[in-house]
Amino acid sequence: MNHYETVFILTPVLSDTQVKETVQKFEDFLVSKGGEIIWKEDWGLKKLAYPIQHKKTGFYHLLEFKLPPENVKDLEVAFRRDERVMRHLVTKLDKFAADWAEKRKEKIKESKKS
Question: What is the pTM of this model?
Answer without folding.
Answer: 0.89
